[in-house]
Each structure stands twice: as structure tokens, then as C-alpha cells.
Structure to design on (586 residues):
């Protein structure tokens, strides 16, 4: 046994021997690290092999890191003057460092026996340097790149501080090789000075060659990660990622300071030709976005609405505004002025409120007046699901203007009393809770109509059962929102009520609430507060004292709901009280 897996003896001399790892062997340049430890003494060989093994492992690790960095490195067709100067500085320092290592090891005298690893004499080192200099001068004078410098470009381009991809035959490749040759010639000159006793110190360049700005693919990942930690839901992050990635696929993955207004205009022109949900169209399946746009034109497909196009432009534009705050020299206005005019947007592209007749049909369906069971909610019967979100969520939205997900994510503790006013606290205080915008955080007084239907008794039932969520039966969707699964149910509910008109959905109830506010002549600044659209400054001027909550309550009581008659809905207070008592008895 040698005492170390890498210790190898050949004759009387000990060697270090390690196979190059399979994941880097194709680029490492050799299949093993085999070299003499310069000793015949086993004890000393063990000491040296442990040191060398660590050095070699670090070398393997550095090569692997350089290879990974190279894979993500910027591909350039032409080097900038700063990049050329930086390459020269790094390579010049490399030559002088190697020369210094040889001198520190010591030159062999003519009368000394050659050791296991060849050590030059001072004269041999001078001669080698002169020969190398002559060869490089010939190459440089002819602006030629031989095999040695081809391999040097490949090696140096992956060094830390360089990290560039340059392809053979390109202008950047020739510039790179020329920079290395210039650096070598300067190094040979300094080495001659050293030979003459005029010592030139080895410099330590602190110059980064790689661009100051990352490629779009890298910055895009950083953006999504940062915004997701702030307030983006999974669905919001996905939307922004998908469309910004399409921009990148269309315009190329480049350092982000290499994009301009032309790229933004090109992306907009493609969007103008795309149909809605274009990836789901059989005729466009698997096609790149620009190809899909041209195919859609050929097939005369209906294009995306103005609203959808502007939404996508906002998504991608928001990335550039973020990036401009992170890196110098970027223009944050790349997408400014590209939105389509509102004149082109038709009213049908917006969500419409329900008509009064549609509201009557919706709230007269079995789900609200009596169905067979929660599973057979479309069949008439005597059961009213008064402990289910399917019953309460549409009513809460109608009488408060709250969004679907804001309602479904409510905790029991979010039904609070402030200065005698019972309110819903719309907040993001929970791992499963999200708000559309910071201004969405607000208080909504519980309307007397909801209280009359037994809503507060329902809340007490949940509180007695020590439930956290007000609607625990509603599942969280794959996108991190409760609205996904519920919206499918509400669509079926609309169809069952005979509501088949386009541009109406659960969100239409929010529009109805706003219309009722206008009919009640509520001040628009208060409507903005109730809808969660008021900016913090506008909101905070009300304060959160008794006057604020009394004003909220008075405003909601003034809303004119008289045009919709829901008197046929039952007061479920007594039944909810019985349910609460039965649970307590159990």
C-alpha cells in the first residue's frame, strides 16, 4: 500500500497521479495529472502528495467553474478597446508570474545533474525567451494566429475576470489573439530587464473584461426572483416571465445594454399579428413567436385585443424600468410611447357589469334559494349552502366590491370591529394571501344586507369551530391563488342561470358595486378607497380613527341597491345559530 491513493512510485522516485474527472476531461487538455514529487523518500513523498492533491483538486474545481462560466459567458463579435486592454493586462501579468516562479525555484548550474523535472539554466531560459519573442513577432507582424494562440484564446477567454465567448474566424477572435501576442511581447521585454538585473515586479490587474451588464436571460431570472419576494403571486411572476422570455427569444439573448427602441418596436409589431392564446392554436403549435405571427396573418386569425397587447407591453416594459435602476447606462423608456391608443380599444374588450335582470336570475338560481345538495347545486331543493363560499362570495362582492381572491383568502380574524363598525380587513397577512397592489389593502364595512342574510352568524360559526380561513373548503390553485378553481365554478353557475353574454364574469360584480356607488352619489375619492385603487397618500389622509370608520359605514349605507330586489333570499341567522349550537354540543 502506498499510503495515499494518488501516490505512485516509478523506479526510486515518487509521483502524483490523478485521473481528470469525466465532466471536464474533454476540455481539460489531458486525461490525468501525472508529475514527479521530486523525492525518493516515502515519508516526504506522503507529505508532498497530500499538498499536491489539494492543489490539483482546486485546479479541477477552477476548471469546472471556468467551464460553467464560459457556458453562460457573453458571446461577442467584436472587442471593445477596454476589453482589449484588460486582456493584455491579465495575460501580461500571467507571463511575468510564470517567469517569477521559475526564478524563485532557481536556475540549474551547468555542472549540476538534471533533476526529475527539467530545470533550465539561466542561459537556457534566456535563449527560450528570445526564441519565443522572435516567433511571436513574426505572428504579430503578419496578424496571424497559430495553433498555440488558438488554444491560448480558448483558455484565457474562460479565465476569471475575462469570461467571454469568441468564435474562431470572427473579428473578436483575431483581436483576442492579437491582444495576447502584444501582452506576451511586453512580457518578454520585461523578462529581459529582469535578466539584466533591472527587476520588473509582477502586476496584479484588477480589470474585469466581461461586460458590466449581464445577459437578458440572467437579469430576467434576477428580476423575477426579486419581485416574487416582494409582492408578486406565482401567477403574476409567470405572466411577466413568459412574455419577457418571448421578447428575448425574438430579439436574442444579449447583454441588456445592447437592446434599444428598435427591439421594442419589433416586438410590438409581432404582437399586433398574434391571436389570443396563440400557443394553444393547433396551426401555430411549436412555432417561434415571429413565425406564429406570420402564420396567423396568412390564416387571417383574429388578433389580440388592444387591452391584451398593452398589457403585454407593460409586462416587458416593467422589466426594463427595473433593470435601469440596477445597472448604469440603460434606458428605462424603451417601451414608453408604444402602447396602443385607447381610441382603438372597443368597449367590449372590458369586463361589463351584470344587467339587473342577470343579477336577478343569478341570485334566484337553486344555489341561492334552495338546491338538492352541494354536489347537485343546479337541481332545485330545500338545501341552501350557507356555510360555503359558493353562496357567500358573489354576495360579498356585490355588496362590497371586493375581488374574488380577496374574498376567498379571508381569515376568520379578518372580520373585525373598529369603533363599532364591522369590517372585512383586506390584507396580505398570511402565507397564502396576496394583494393585487399595495393600495388593495383596506377595510370594507359589512353591508346591512349581508348581515340580514346571516353573514355575521356564519362568521361566528367559523370562529366557534376554531377555523383559520373563512372559506376552508375552497382550494388553493396551482398558481398560488384561490380564484382559479372558484372562477370555473362561477362560470358554470352563470351558465346554469342562463347568462351567456360575453365580457361578464365574477369581476362584473365589482363593476356593479361601482355603478351602485355612483347611483348613490358617493364621492369618487371614497369609491376609490372602497375599491382598493386609492394611492397611499390619498388613503392615509383619512386616517384610521373613528371618523374614518364612521365615514366608511355611512358611505356604504348610502349606496343605492334599491334597483336590485333580493328580498326573496332567506334570512339564515336562525339556521346558522342552530348549526353553531349543534357543533358545540358535539
Amino acid at each position: 500500500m502506498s499510503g495515499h491513493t494518488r501516490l505512485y512510485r516509478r523506479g526510486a522516485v515518487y509521483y502524483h497521479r490523478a485521473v481528470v474527472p469525466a465532466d471536464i476531461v474533454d476540455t481539460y487538455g489531458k486525461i490525468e495529472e501525472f508529475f514527479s514529487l521530486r523525492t525518493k523518500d516515502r515519508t516526504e513523498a506522503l507529505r508532498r502528495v497530500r499538498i499536491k492533491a489539494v492543489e490539483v483538486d482546486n485546479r479541477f474545481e477552477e476548471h469546472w467553474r471556468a467551464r460553467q462560466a464560459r457556458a453562460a459567458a457573453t458571446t461577442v463579435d467584436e472587442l471593445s478597446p477596454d476589453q482589449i486592454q484588460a486582456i493584455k493586462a491579465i495575460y501580461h501579468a500571467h507571463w511575468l508570474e510564470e517567469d517569477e516562479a521559475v526564478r524563485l525555484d532557481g536556475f540549474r548550474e551547468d555542472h549540476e545533474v538534471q533533476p526529475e523535472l527539467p530545470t533550465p539554466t539561466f542561459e537556457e531560459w534566456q535563449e527560450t525567451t528570445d526564441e519565443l519573442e522572435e516567433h511571436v513577432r513574426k505572428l504579430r507582424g503578419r496578424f496571424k494566429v497559430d495553433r498555440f494562440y488558438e488554444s491560448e484564446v480558448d483558455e484565457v477567454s474562460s479565465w476569471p475576470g475575462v469570461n467571454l465567448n469568441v468564435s474562431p474566424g470572427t473579428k473578436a477572435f483575431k483581436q483576442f489573439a492579437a491582444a495576447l501576442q502584444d501582452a506576451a511581447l511586453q512580457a518578454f521585454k520585461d523578462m529581459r530587464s529582469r535578466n539584466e538585473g533591472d527587476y520588473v515586479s509582477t502586476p496584479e490587474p484588477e480589470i474585469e473584461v466581461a461586460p458590466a451588464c449581464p445577459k437578458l436571460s440572467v437579469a430576467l431570472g434576477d428580476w423575477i426572483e426579486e419581485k416574487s419576494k416582494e409582492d408578486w403571486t406565482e401567477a403574476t411572476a409567470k405572466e411577466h416571465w413568459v412574455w419577457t422570455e418571448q421578447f428575448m427569444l425574438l430579439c436574442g439573448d444579449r447583454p441588456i445594454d445592447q437592446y434599444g427602441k428598435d427591439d421594442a418596436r419589433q416586438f410590438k409589431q409581432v404582437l399586433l399579428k398574434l391571436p389570443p392564446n396563440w400557443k394553444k392554436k393547433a396551426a401555430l403549435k411549436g412555432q417561434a413567436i415571429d413565425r406564429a405571427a406570420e402564420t396567423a396573418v396568412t390564416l387571417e386569425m383574429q388578433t389580440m385585443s388592444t387591452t391584451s397587447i398593452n398589457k403585454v407591453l407593460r409586462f416587458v416594459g416593467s422589466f426594463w424600468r427595473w433593470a435601469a435602476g440596477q445597472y448604469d447606462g440603460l434606458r428605462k423608456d424603451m417601451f414608453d410611447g408604444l402602447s396602443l391608443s385607447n381610441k382603438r380599444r372597443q368597449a367590449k374588450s372590458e369586463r361589463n357589469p351584470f344587467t339587473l335582470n342577470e343579477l336577478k336570475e343569478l341570485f334566484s338560481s337553486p344555489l341561492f334559494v334552495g338546491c338538492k345538495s352541494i354536489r347537485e347545486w343546479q337541481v332545485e331543493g330545500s338545501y341552501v349552502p350557507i356555510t360555503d363560499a359558493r353562496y357567500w362570495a358573489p354576495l360579498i362582492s356585490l355588496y362590497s366590491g371586493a375581488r374574488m381572491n380577496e374574498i376567498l383568502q379571508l381569515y376568520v380574524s379578518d372580520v373585525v370591529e373598529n369603533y363599532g363598525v364591522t369590517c372585512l380587513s383586506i390584507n396580505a397577512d398570511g402565507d397564502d394571501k396576496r394583494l393585487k397592489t399595495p393600495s388593495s389593502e383596506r377595510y370594507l364595512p359589512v353591508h346591512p344586507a349581508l348581515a340580514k342574510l346571516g353573514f355575521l352568524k356564519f362568521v361566528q360559526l367559523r370562529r366557534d369551530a376554531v377555523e383559520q380561513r373563512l372559506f376552508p373548503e375552497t382550494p388553493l390553485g396551482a398558481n398560488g391563488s384561490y380564484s382559479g378553481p372558484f372562477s370555473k365554478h362561477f362560470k358554470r353557475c352563470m351558465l346554469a342561470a342562463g347568462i351567456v353574454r360575453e365580457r361578464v364574469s365574477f369581476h362584473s360584480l365589482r363593476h356593479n358595486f361601482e355603478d351602485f356607488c355612483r347611483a348613490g352619489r358617493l364621492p369618487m375619492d371614497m369609491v376609490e378607497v372602497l375599491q382598493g385603487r386609492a394611492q397611499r397618500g390619498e388613503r392615509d389622509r383619512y386616517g384610521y380613527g373613528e371618523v374614518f370608520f364612521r365615514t366608511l359605514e355611512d358611505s356604504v349605507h348610502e349606496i343605492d341597491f334599491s334597483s336590485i330586489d333580493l328580498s326573496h333570499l332567506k334570512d339564515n341567522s336562525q339556521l346558522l345559530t342552530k348549526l353553531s349550537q349543534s357543533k358545540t354540543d358535539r
